[in-house]
Amino acid sequence: MKLKVAISGASGFVGGELARVLENHPNMELVTVTGNSSVGTTLGSLNPDLTKYSELVFVENTKDNLAGHDVVFLALPHTKSAEIAGWIDDDVLVLDCGADFRLESAEAFEKFYKTKHAGSWVYGMPELLRENNSKQRALLLGQKRIAAPGCNATAITLAFAPLLRDKLVSPTDLVSTLSVGTSGAGRNAEVNQGEALASAFAYQVGGVHRHIPEVEQNLNRISETNVSLTFTPVLVPMFRGILAVNTAQLLPGKDLAQVRKSFEGAYGSEHFIELLPQGQFPNTSDVQFNNKVQIGVAVDEASGKVIVISAIDNLVKGTAGAALQSMNIALGLSESTGIVGASK
To answer: Which CATH architecture has domain 3-148+317-330?
Structure first.
């Protein structure tokens, strides 16, 4: 018998993407979608590419409408999930695709989100390197409350983590510049209304982006010294995808062969992470609509910098696909069940 699934806040891009990826899952049945501004309309009216769940009708986001499910996804604006999560019984698996429960530090959360910290849940990035060469997936089995990672944080974390674990780069000069598709701004953002974006522009410049403390939390677990990250996102004229250019200073005596060995050791057995052959670099079109991360690496001999290019689909690996990965692990299913994009 299939498990019953609800998506709270399904009228946004993330909610629609969750419905799309759930169409392929053999063990799940999406039965409820909530979205207050869309009540009475169909899920397909906002997501015309849907097939299986296009006729589901939005209902109000209430405690009663979210009751009686086995799995509930929260696809709500940041700072809105905490209240809704309190409505749901403890024995239901809840996965938050917002930021409410990602950060362990109340001080960091309140600084970047300007509201009271609601606590932290188990973090849902299965491939995240941890202490003693372990990975985050070991903590997800059997969990009932999981915080899915941020999309930018995924692209940056997976690019730097092996280098820090293997002490190949300085942790105090990490730089990431990300080209980000407009879907990352949300369905109601001005950039996704009317004419398509025709220019590129940087935003949240100068250390104020909300994913910075998330990346630092991830990387500080495996770095001997707390990391220092300069992160600049650039909105570009594409709808979905992130292309991250990540640079760090190589430590003396380290070289490209050691860099590639580090990534192979960290991700060689991962289903959804693909290290490209030397001299090849990813692009967003190759990861669209799937849960894959592509990584290419190079060393600038003149500056002594290592450059790691990572590409993801921000709506899949950046959010919905990562949430499904974590859901599968928590339920004891094969991690790749129903997810498109496994590279092995």
So the answer is: 3-Layer(aba) Sandwich (3.40)
